[in-house]
Design brief:
By secondary structure, the protein is an all-alpha fold. It has helices at residues 6-20, 25-34, 36-58, 62-79.
């Protein structure tokens, strides 16, 4: 379990509060449908990648899980 100090919790709450002001379901529904082809492509890709993590964990496959995490870290470092 993550141990988050009160400063981090307060910061998260403020960020969540600010974000909720922009969660207009009418606006987002319209945007999602206008961009559905791209969003569906990205969502399908993300779901497939998440399934790899799920499968590795279900199978107690530490080797695969470690490689997935390494690949993710390296992709982030490359993007930064």
């Amino acid at each position: 379990m993550l141990d988050i100090d009160s400063g981090d919790r307060d910061s998260f709450r403020e960020t969540a509060k600010a974000a909720s002001a922009y969660l207009n379901e009418n606006m987002w529904t319209e945007l999602f449908l206008e961009n559905k082809d791209n969003l569906i492509f990205e969502l399908d890709y993300l779901i497939e990648e998440l399934k790899k993590y799920s499968t590795a964990m279900k199978n107690d496959d530490a080797k695969t899980l470690k490689q997935l995490l390494k690949d993710g870290r390296e992709a982030k470092e490359k993007a930064d």
